[in-house]
Amino acid sequence: MERFKGSLASYGLTLLMPAFFDALGVSGTLRVERGAVRRQFFLRDGYLVGESSSDPREHLGQVLARLRILDAARAATAFEASEAARVPLGTFLVERGLVERTRLLEAMEHKAREALFDCYGWQSGEVEFIPGLPPPPNRVVELPRLGLKELHRDARTRLREWTVFWTLFAGPGTTFTVRREFVVETAAAEEQQLLRLAEQGRTLGELLAASNEGAVHAARWVVRLYRRGALSPRKAAVAEAGTAPGLAEMLAQARSLVEAGRYEEAVAVAAQALERAPIPEAHALYREAEVRLTVALADEVLALDGRLRFEPLPRPLPPSLTADDLYLHAKLRGSRSVREVLRNAAMGELAAYRALRRLMAAGVARVNTEQESSTSGGPARTNPYGLPVVVV
């Protein structure tokens, strides 16, 4: 491909990216810039092989801390030491044994994916493609190849998610009324933090900026709290079922699904109704279906605790795995409890459980036999890739 430069207002990544994965063997640097943030994505033979960002929130040390691969204090100390030694941070962490190479690659992949996904939502700024790649820095740990087609698929899914989000809420200046009677006693720490901020009159923009895991995770928590009726936009008028075409039918369908024990479908229908208007009955149906679904999943999730083994990710990555699946994989590898991770996943316990099932179908996670679980005595090892396996 030839050199290209244009405005994101006319040439967004949703439009441009197919040209990069439809063409054969594209190599070069894709630069995307808006305001003070400048990101570069390095492409080789049609794959993403590197990424850099000027945004300090996207520093590798912060990503490692968010994924609980390395605590924040040690990450800061390691960064200072790597700067003094003039060694890239990733290389320094691996060479000093502070982070396993496989965990570092997971963090680097997550960092690159999230940076690219964010750029899909930019409607202003500049985009430029420069053919050819600069030589990599000495001793750098390189990002494994990431398929552009799969990244484009996940980025479009994320973009649709944000479209729904901003349909629900008027803008970043939105404030909320809090109804704690609709919050379960076992609410996650992220939920409690968002509720406290909302009670203080903080805006939606401030709520999104408050999450240690990033805006998309905060947005997912906000949406779930809204669907339960725990967070209500202050300027939104409460609607009646008969005020919008089709709402009464959707509520009747959700009620029938709950009565039939089809809780997963009931949650989806109630959520669709709430995208159109904040209807009290829809909130109530959503809460009931979500609670019953969580109870229905509890036994199966409990049966997995302590028996799951997580293999290092194969290369290239299976196309069936989404960005959320890979994020969950990283979180599970750093946790002692499957139940805890699924219960506290911003995507929701059901979505997290589905992601876990996809990891199992791809062979990245597998269930130990009872004998293996009783004799493991600690983190086991296998060597399909010559790398450690984590038992959770």
Automatic annotation (TrEMBL):
Residues 6-162 form the PatA-like N-terminal domain. Pfam families: DUF4388. SUPFAM superfamilies: EspE N-terminal domain-like. Residues 368-377 have a biased composition (Polar residues). It comes from the Bacteria. Residues 368-392 are annotated as: Disordered. This is PatA-like N-terminal domain-containing protein.
